Amino acid sequence: MEQDELWQFGGIDGVKGGYAFPPVAPAALADVALRKPEPTWVRGLIRLWRWWKQRDFLGPIAGVDPKRLDQAGWGVIFASDADPALREALSPLLAHRKAQAGERYREFHGEDGVLPGETKREFLARHGVGPGPADPKLMPYYLLIVADVTRISLSFQYQLDVSYGVGRVHFSTLNDYEAYANSVVAAETAESASAHPRSRCHFFGVHHQQDKPTIRAQKEMTGPLYDWLSRANDLDCHVTQASGRQASRRTLLELFRKPGGRPDLLFSVSHGLVFASGHENQAAMQGGLVCGDYRHVADPLSREHLFLAEDLDRTCHPNGMMWFLFNCYGLGTPRENDYDLNSPPLAPRPFISALPQRLLSHPNGGALAVVGHVERAKVASFSWPDAPAQIATFRSTFQHLLEGYPVGYAMECFDRRFAELTTELQAEIDAVERGRPPKSASLAFLWAARIDARNYLVFGDPAVRLRPF
């Protein structure tokens, strides 16, 4: 990695086409890493990572089976001022989880819910829980946040996610909450749910002409993951792929429109659609997929190049699947720009993208969960300076999912990566503060990779599984 090499972040401008952001010099990112004050909880995260490393630790405390909710526990977290109708809309799911988790089922609502402005540390402390690995006797390991990101923040979620299996749901109508609750219960109680049929996994890998981010993603991540899973006979998975121009909007529509034809696990890699803060299309279209028939990133965009929430009409059948979105803003958009302290806000307010909301609340039965980014997705997810492609985090996550682990547990690999990179970044910053000249490329990469790992979040119930109970 060269000190003066410009880095091109992903994201395609939804109005003009072309990259939504100019390339960035490593020195500029290193400056952000050195100037942006770290929150107080970072030191605690570093101590937790060292404890994990010494014990090769993953998930809840030892002796707890993460596949069993009566051991790991399940809880739902509402804002303290949430409309009681939210709980009523989710009641089919809550009753289902209570029957599974038994005495380790918890609800946090009213005065027990998250108070306005309350941090993750303050919330846990108020309920008698300190830092460290999840002890389900004190707090359930699987926790579902039910709130808009303006009320229970993204920061609250990714801090809680370090030690717990966390997901979130937020929809625009009560009917959508009820639809999702019924979809999960239906998927887990269907007669076929206990038959453990062969899983189907589809890799949808976009790469555009002369576009380094998507070309590298196909070569170093999507292709190797497809090759690995195709040969992993022990996982009993039927694997298919569409790449390049075959990774088109039409291909996705065909996957969803044939009843029973959609994959159990869909992994898509593409650019995400980006709009300026407050643009009339931002809430409905940001984070939509820019598909493979958009041949060159300098070309104008047309509707046929895009896969958006509105494409999931009543001819589609996403029920019972999971979708792992690797694209900018695929899951949501924060208000502030993580990578530029001087830039204007990314949006008037943070929000969850329309596509995952539509997937989970679809009238034909919703997806079980979506994993995606709440900022820009970057090659730092699978690349490391002067080293071969790094896909172990994705590989471990997919293997856990295909082995029947809940998605909240499967995502522990990303939480550990976040904690490890936070430790390494802080060591670099400490060295600079002691007088060592900054190594811009190293600082910039650690900063970008850390933010990237942090911003993978689960939308949906963290206890859902590809192979149900």
Low-confidence stretches: none
Mean pLDDT: 89
Annotation field: number of helices: 16
Radius of gyration: 21 Å
Tell me the number of strands: 16
- Structural class by helix and strand composition: alpha/beta
- Report the principal-axis shape: globular
Strands of the widest sheet, in order across it, are 7-6-8-12-15-16
For the biggest sheet, the summary is: 6 strands, mixed
| Portion in beta strands | 5-15%
Summarize the amount of helix as a percent range: 25-40%
Terminal residue distance? 46 Å
Q: What do these coordinates show?
A:
- The chain has 469 residues and is an alpha/beta fold.
- It has 16 helices and 16 strands.
- The protein has a six-stranded mixed sheet with strand order 7-6-8-12-15-16, sandwiched between helices. It has a four-stranded mixed sheet with strand order 1-9-10-11, with no helix packed on it. Strands 3-2-4-5 form a four-stranded parallel sheet.
- Helix 9 (212-231) links the parallel strand 6 and strand 7 (237-243).
- It is globular, with a radius of gyration of 21 Å.
